[in-house]
Amino acid sequence: CAQPHNPSLYTNIFEYTDWIQNIIAGNLAATCPP
Fold this sequence. Notes:
mainly alpha; 1 helix
């Protein structure tokens, strides 16, 4: 969680799992998600 002088950012990565898996697999041609 965010603390003073240490902000945090959270997101639901479910919508990005295909993109993340492509990047991990080395598919650098994967387009960025919208």
